[in-house]
Specification:
By secondary structure, this protein is mostly beta strands. The protein is built from 8 helices and 56 strands. A hairpin with a 5-residue loop joins strand 52 and strand 53. InterPro entries: MetalloPept_cat_dom_sf (IPR024079), Secre_tail (IPR026444).
Length: 843
C-alpha cells in the first residue's frame, strides 16, 4: 500500500487552535497516549550504592523542605512500606525539577512478566501547544504542563507506572539492599524519569527502523545522533521506516547530543543503549550500560537495575538531559497580534519573560519582516516597568494596499540556548498578521446534531464554532420548511470559559406543524466586522436537510433480504442488483468516494425501526452476509489505531441517534483473506485506487452480539457506516440477508466455537470493576497463540496482548485503572475467529 501523506485521524482528540503557523497553516494541539518503557531485572548481584543528591540531603530533614515541584501519587495495591519507598523517590524528584503544575502519578502494584521490575509511560503526549520549543513534536504531558504552566489533561495521570508485585523488593530507604533484593526507591526513580520524558519513539520491525507517532517524533528523538553526528530523525540523513535507519538503531553507537549535556560533560555527548537486536521497550530510551556501569553516578537510567544495586541519584547526565528536553526553560509569554484594517498606526508587541535560570536581556529582540524573512529587521525590546514585561513597536505599514507582518521574539539564557516565540522561528514558524482591507471570510465548523427528525420532536438544537481574523459581527441561522424560507435568527455566543468561539441556538418546531415527509433545511451564516462584511455560508452551495419521519414502535426482531423495495432503511446506501449479482442487496456507491481535502467522509445507512435488545438467552444477534472491499490498514494495525485507514462498522444508539456506539470494532478488507486478495489484485500504480470488483462468491457471514454493547431491554437504533479517509479507495461494501434477533442458526453465533464449548467458558470478573479484573477462559485444548484487545466505545484500543502456549485453563489479570469510567469491549481472537465481551469500569 502506497500512501503519500499521513493518514487521517479516526477519532477526535482534545484540540484547540494556536497562533503558530507552518508554511502559512495554523497548527493545532493534539494529544495521544504515551509509549510504555520497560525496566528488566539483572539478577546478578552488584553490591553498589549511590546516595541521593546533595541538594536532597540538605533538605531531607528540614520541616520546611523547599520543593521546586509537587508530585501527587495515587497508589493501587501498595503496602505501607512500599509507599514509603515510593515517596522517598518522589521526594528526591521534587527537589530536582521545577514545575508550577502538580505532576500526577498513577502507581500500580501488580504482577508483571517474569524478569520485569517495572514499566511506565507518559499518560499523554501533546504537540503544538502554545510555547512549545519544537513544533510538530510530541512532549510528555508533565513537561508540556511545566512549559505552559497550565493543566492540560483534565487531571488525568501524567505518568502511569507499574511495579512487579512478585519481585523480591528491598523497601528500605537507606540504599542498602542485600543479595537478591531489588531496591524499590531506585526503580521508582527510574520509572518516573521515563514518564517525565526520558523516552524515544524509535522502533524496529522486520528490516526497517522507524520513529514517531502519527508521523511526528518525541522531543527526546531530536537529540539522538550517530557516531558521525548525524541526527537520526533528519530525513536528509536517514529515511523513516527504512533498513538504513534500522542499522543505526542497532549499531551500538548512538548518542544524546544536547547542548547542556555536552557543556557539562567535557564537550562529550552521552552514549545511549542501542543493542543488536533491537530491544523493544528499552532500546534508545536508556543510557548505555557499558559506558555507565553499576556503581557510577550516572547508572540509574541504564536499561537494567541489578540485584543489590541502589542508585538514589538520577546523575548529572540525566539531569542535564532533562534540561535539554525543556525541564530548564525560559518562557516567552506573548499574545500574538491579530489582523487589522488600521494602516495608520504602529503596533506594540509585548512579552513577559520568565526563566528557570538567568536571562541575558541584552539578547532580547523583536525580529520582523514583510517578506517571510527573506529580509528582516530587529528591535531590542525594552522593560516596561511591569514585572518581567518587555515591549517594542513595529512601525507603520507604508503600503496603502496592505501587507503581512511576520515576526518573532528571541532571547538567550545562561544555558547558552536561544528561545523563540513561536518555537523554531523563523525557519519553520513565525507569528504573522495582516494590515489592510480584510477579504478573509469567517470560518465555520458545524456538524448537524441529528441524522433524522421525528414527527414528535419539538426543537432542533444547533451549535457551531465560528471564528474570524478580524472579528465577527453576526452568526445566524437561515432555515426553510418545505423550501419556504422562515425568519432567520441569531445564534448566541457561549458564556462558558474557553468556549468563546461557540455559538448556540435552537429551531422551535412546535409552531411549524410538520408532517411526515416534510423537509426542514438550514444553513449557518457568519458575517465578520470588517469594512467588507465578509460572509461565509455553511454549507456553501447547499443546505443541511432533515426529512420528518414517522415514529415507529420498537420491534423485537427484523429481517430483510433486499429483494423488494423497502422504506425501512434510509441513508447513503442503495438497494440494487449490480452486474454479476443475481439478487438485490444493500450496496454503497461502487467505488466509494475519497474524502480528499475534507480529511474524512462517512457513508451511513440507518434502520428506521428501533430494536428492543433481546435477553442473552434469546439470540440478541445481528447476522448478515457481506463483502468488504475497502482500503486495508497497515499490517498489524487494529481498529482505533494509527494507519487503520478506511473501515466499515455497525453501530447502535440508545439516545435517539445523538450518540452512536460500536456494536463491534470496525474492520476492513483484511477481515477476510479473500477480500484482501481481491482488493490487492487490481491496485493502481500509486496504490491509491483498487479497481477490483465484488461478486457473490465473496459474501461472508458476519455475527454481532448486541449485548456486548447494550443491555437487554434497551431500545436502540442501528446503522451501518463506511469511513473513507483522504487517500486510497476501493469498491466498497455490500450487505445482504440481514437478520436482527430473528430466526438465526445456532451454528453461526458461537464465536470461537472450535476452541471453546460455550460462552460460559469465558468469564470476566469482577464486572463492574474499578479497572482491575481477571479474564478466565477454559479451552478445549492448549493453544499456540491467543490474543486479547480491549477498546473503548470510541473504538480506541486501550489494551493489546498476545499470549503463547496457553494451557486448557487460562487466567490473566488485566489492569485498566488508568482509563476513565465507561463500557469497554474485550475482543478475544484465535486464528481469525473472534469473541467479544463487555466490561464496565466504574470507580
Amino acid at each position: 500500500m502506497v500512501r503519500s501523506v499521513c493518514g487521517s485521524c479516526l477519532f477526535s482528540f482534545f484540540v484547540f487552535f494556536l497562533g503558530i503557523t507552518i508554511n502559512g497553516q495554523a497548527q493545532k494541539v493534539e494529544s495521544i497516549p504515551g509509549p510504555v518503557i520497560v525496566c528488566p531485572a539483572d539478577f546478578d548481584d552488584q553490591h553498589t550504592s549511590i546516595p541521593p543528591p546533595e541538594r536532597f540531603l540538605k533538605e531531607q530533614f528540614n520541616s520546611a523542605r523547599r520543593k521546586t515541584s509537587t508530585f501527587e501519587v495515587t497508589y493501587v495495591g501498595f503496602s505501607t512500606e512500599a509507599r514509603a519507598a515510593f515517596q522517598q523517590a518522589i521526594d528526591i524528584w521534587e527537589t530536582l525539577l521545577v514545575s508550577e503544575v502538580p505532576i500526577r502519578v498513577l502507581a500500580n502494584w501488580r504482577p508483571l512478566a517474569s524478569g520485569t521490575l517495572g514499566s511506565s509511560s507518559s499518560g499523554t503526549l501533546f504537540r503544538n501547544f502554545q510555547g512549545a520549543p519544537k513544533i510538530q513534536t510530541w512532549y510528555p504531558v508533565a513537561l508540556a504542563e511545566k512549559i505552559t504552566r497550565t493543566e492540560m489533561n483534565d487531571n488525568e495521570p501524567d505518568i502511569v507506572a507499574n511495579f512487579n508485585s512478585g519481585a523480591n523488593w528491598y523497601l528500605g530507604l537507606d540504599a542498602s539492599p542485600e543479595s537478591g533484593e531489588f531496591d524499590l526507591v531506585s526503580v521508582v526513580l527510574h520509572e518516573i524519569a521515563h514518564g517525565l520524558g526520558f523516552s524515544g519513539s524509535f522502533s524496529v520491525s522486520g528490516v526497517n527502523g522507524s520513529y514517531g507517532f502519527s508521523g511526528f517524533p518525541q522531543v527526546y528523538d531530536h537529540f539522538v545522533e550517530n557516531g558521525s553526528g548525524l541526527q537520526l530523525i533528519d530525513s536528509e540523513n536517514f529515511n523513516n521506516n527504512s533498513p538504513n535507519l534500522s542499522d543505526q538503531l542497532t549499531g551500538s553507537s548512538l548518542f544524546f547530543s544536547g547542548d547542556i549535556v555536552k557543556n557539562n560533560n567535557g564537550g562529550n555527548r552521552a552514549e545511549i543503549y542501542a543493542p543488536d537486536p533491537f530491544d523493544n521497550g528499552s532500546s534508545i530510551s536508556h543510557l548505555d550500560e557499558t559506558r555507565f556501569p553499576s556503581g557510577t553516578v550516572n547508572s540509574l537510567m541504564t536499561p537494567q537495575i541489578g540485584a543489590s544495586e541502589a542508585i538514589h541519584n538520577p546523575g548529572p547526565i540525566t539531569l542535564n538531559l532533562f534540561a535539554d528536553l525543556g525541564w530548564i526553560h525560559t518562557n516567552i509569554d506573548h499574545e500574538p497580534l491579530t489582523d487589522t484594517e488600521d494602516l495608520s498606526s504602529s503596533f506594540q508587541v509585548t512579552a513577559n519573560i520568565t526563566s528557570d535560570t538567568i536571562v541575558f536581556f541584552d539578547s532580547l529582540f523583536l525580529h520582523y519582516s514583510t517578506d517571510t524573512f527573506k529580509t528582516s529587521e530587529r528591535i531590542k525590546m525594552q522593560a516596561t516597568g511591569n514585572p518581567n514585561e518587555y515591549q517594542a513597536l513595529l512601525p507603520e505599514i507604508n503600503n496603502p494596499d496592505g501587507a503581512f507582518y511576520f515576526y518573532y521574539i528571541s532571547v538567550y539564557d545562561s544555558t547558552q540556548r536561544q528561545f523563540t516565540s513561536p518555537g523554531q522561528a523563523p525557519d519553520l514558524t513565525s507569528h504573522r498578521f495582516y494590515v489592510g482591507a480584510d477579504t478573509v471570510p469567517p470560518n465555520i465548523i458545524h456538524t448537524p446534531p441529528l441524522e433524522f427528525l421525528r414527527e414528535t420532536d419539538e426543537t432542533v438544537s444547533l451549535e457551531a464554532i465560528a471564528t474570524d481574523n478580524i472579528g465577527l459581527d453576526t452568526v445566524l441561522i437561515d432555515y426553510f420548511v418545505n423550501n419556504v424560507q422562515q425568519e432567520s435568527f441569531g445564534l448566541v455566543r457561549s458564556m462558558e470559559p474557553d468556549q468563546e468561539d461557540l455559538y448556540e441556538g435552537e429551531i422551535s418546531l412546535t409552531d411549524l406543524s410538520l408532517q411526515v415527509g416534510d423537509t426542514l433545511k438550514y444553513r449557518i451564516v457568519a458575517i465578520d466586522s470588517s469594512s467588507n462584511n465578509n460572509m461565509t455560508l455553511s454549507p456553501e452551495d447547499s443546505l443541511h436537510q432533515f426529512i420528518v419521519e414517522e415514529v415507529f414502535d420498537p420491534v423485537s426482531s427484523y429481517s430483510n433480504d433486499f429483494n423488494t423495495a423497502s422504506a425501512d432503511l434510509a441513508g447513503d446506501f442503495f438497494v440494487s442488483t449490480p452486474s454479476g449479482f443475481s439478487d438485490g442487496a444493500l450496496h454503497t456507491k461502487h467505488p466509494y468516494d475519497s474524502a480528499g481535502q475534507q480529511r474524512e467522509l462517512n457513508f451511513i445507512h440507518r434502520l428506521r425501526i428501533p430494536i428492543t435488545v433481546a435477553p442473552v438467552d434469546q439470540k440478541p444477534f445481528i447476522v448478515f452476509d457481506e463483502i468488504v472491499l475497502v482500503e486495508p490498514g497497515e499490517d498489524g494495525t487494529v481498529f482505533g489505531s494509527d494507519q487503520f485507514w478506511d473501515f466499515v462498522i455497525v453501530e447502535g444508539s440508545s439516545d435517539d441517534g445523538e450518540t452512536w456506539q460500536p456494536l463491534a470494532p470496525g474492520y476492513d478488507s483484511r477481515s477476510e483473506q479473500e477480500w484482501l486478495n481481491r482488493y490487492n489484485s487490481a491496485l493502481s500504480s500509486n496504490g491509491q485506487l483498487s479497481s477490483a470488483v465484488g461478486d457473490p462468491a465473496l459474501f461472508k457471514s458476519r455475527v454481532i452480539n448486541i449485548t456486548d454493547t447494550f443491555d437487554p431491554g434497551t431500545n436502540i437504533w442501528i446503522r451501518f457506516r463506511l469511513f473513507s479517509d483522504q487517500l486510497a479507495i476501493g469498491w466498497g461494501w455490500a450487505i445482504d440477508n440481514l437478520v436482527i434477533q430473528g430466526d438465526i442458526d445456532d451454528k453461526i453465533i458461537n464465536g470461537l466455537n472450535d476452541f471453546i464449548d460455550s460462552k460460559e467458558d469465558v468469564s470476566l470478573y469482577p464486572n463492574p470493576t474499578n479497572g482491575s479484573f481477571t479474564l478466565d477462559v477454559r479451552f478445549k485444548k492448549p493453544l499456540r497463540t491467543f490474543s486479547v484487545a480491549i477498546f473503548n466505545l470510541l473504538g480506541e484500543q486501550v489494551f493489546e496482548r498476545t499470549f503463547e502456549n496457553t494451557g486448557i485453563a487460562f487466567s490473566n489479570d488485566i489492569n485498566l485503572q488508568q482509563n476513565p469510567d465507561g463500557l469497554y469491549l474485550v475482543r478475544m481472537e484465535i486464528d481469525g475467529e473472534f469473541l467479544v465481551k463487555k466490561v464496565l469500569i466504574r470507580k
